[in-house]
């Protein structure tokens, strides 16, 4: 037959009787320690009832002082790190929505930028900025150029009309002869 691997050769199984004996021994040891801590009160009263009452008190305290289960080595070492942010959950009743919100530096800078841009646009529309003055001067020059161009077109059109009228007069005079 086949031999199993080296890990399974020396397996030993405990019988249910041995397990029960170990559990009873642990219970008795725990009872003795409790009696020693209570200073003999456990011997006069019923230890099971006292244990239950102590357990119920502890469970109430556990509910009130609930802390998250610590991960890794956190439970072994107490660290005082001033930079560490401890996340606390707040109830809806504890939230203060009406109070002033503290903005981050980036948010403050963004708001300042927007306000500055709005101020600049108001000044620009009023014609008080250098760029607005330059734009208005440029527009004035362009208006003058367009007016001159429109005048020249009008004069040319009038000249064409007069030439066409003169041509028609000559034609009508030649037809009348």
TrEMBL record:
PANTHER family: 28 KDA HEAT- AND ACID-STABLE PHOSPHOPROTEIN PDGF-ASSOCIATED PROTEIN. It comes from Urocolius indicus. Residues 1-10 have a biased composition (Basic residues). Residues 56-65 have a biased composition (Acidic residues). InterPro entries: Casein_kinase_sb_PP28, HAP28. It comes from the Eukaryota. Residues 81-158 form the Casein kinase substrate phosphoprotein PP28 domain. Residues 1-113, 147-177 are annotated as: Disordered. This is HAP28 protein. Pfam families: PP28 (PF10252). Residues 46-55, 98-113, 147-163 have a biased composition (Basic and acidic residues).
């Amino acid at each position: 037959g086949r031999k199993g691997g080296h890990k399974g050769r020396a397996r030993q199984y405990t019988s249910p009787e041995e397990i029960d004996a170990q559990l009873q021994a642990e219970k008795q040891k725990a009872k003795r320690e409790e009696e020693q801590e209570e200073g003999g009160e456990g011997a006069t009263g019923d230890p099971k009832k006292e244990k239950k009452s102590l357990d119920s008190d502890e469970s109430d305290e556990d509910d009130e002082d609930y802390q998250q289960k610590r991960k890794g080595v956190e439970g072994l070492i107490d660290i005082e790190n001033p930079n560490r942010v401890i996340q606390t959950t707040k109830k809806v009743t504890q939230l203060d929505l009406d109070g002033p919100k503290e903005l981050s530096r980036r948010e403050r800078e963004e708001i300042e930028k927007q306000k500055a841009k709005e101020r600049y646009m108001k000044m620009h529309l009023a014609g008080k900025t250098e760029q607005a003055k330059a734009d208005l001067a440029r527009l004035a020059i362009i208006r003058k150029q367009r007016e001159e161009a429109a005048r020249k077109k009008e004069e040319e059109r009038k000249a064409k009309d007069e030439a066409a009228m003169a041509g028609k007069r000559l034609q009508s005079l030649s037809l009348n002869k």
